[in-house]
Amino acid sequence: MRRVLALPLLILLLAGCSAVTPVEAPVAPSPVVPTTIAPSPAAAGHAPAKSFGVATRTLRFQRGDRKLPTTVYYPKSSGHFPVVVFGHGLTGSPTGYAELLRRWAAAGFVIAAPAFPHTSAGAAKVDVMDVLNQPADVSAVLDGLTALPGSDPLRKILDLKAVAAAGHSAGGITTVGVFSAQPRDPRFTAGIVLAGNSLGVGQTFTGTPAPMLFVHADKDPVVPAYTDRAVFDALSWPRAFLRLTGEGHSSPYVSRRDPQFSVVSSTTVDFLRWALYRDSSARARLLRVRGLDAHL
Q1: Which of 28, 164, 234, 277 is the most exposed place for a label (fewest CB within 10 A)?
Q2: C-alpha dihedral (72, 31, 62, 95), degrees to nearest 10
């Protein structure tokens, strides 16, 4: 992947990428002890047809001295559901994206959304460049979910053989970092980048190809769409780029009152259904989405 964003410009672009709603009060961390993924049913070609009720829970993870309080949105149902680890934008919070993340959970996914230690609304000191450390935080959150006791009701519903990374703005940059890390975490097999781009330091995507969805408004005033499009164009994996019209940087992803929220919601849900459940009918719907450049 070619270099698409110099670091000084990255700092300027990220300065306005926050979503609304402050982070919840920090909670005391508990150590993460990685364990082997327990066997669970692989996604078998059919995503759930019904909409589930959604529950939330806060888990306390950390990586070294990096506290990662994580809000989890999950279906109120038995069964096994794919997992999505979601990263917020600069000075944002997991709860700022509740509208979208609840839609994903209602469609049959478990969403784990950490508050990053130095880029969240609750950070004592915001450090823009700490985004470079966040891909490893995403992996640590997945470690934490894996390490939950087998008796834990949440652990019982996790399908840890079907896992995606996703994020908005700085969280989207974090998601790109997950797939260009050296070494890459092979547990993540799909990604969604909302109004993001590359880390800006010349990383290339590594490892087994993973489907990627990019969503960006064509007149985004914070992160120019061409920087995200450059990542998409340089990528040879299965991929799609949804071009939104107008200037929205955060509202299409955080507010159902935004006229484009429903498009973002339905397209991202169908992408996850296809990428994690291998649902061919979801792929067919994706190919009919207006403004979607698909290479799936």
Answers
A1: 28
A2: 20
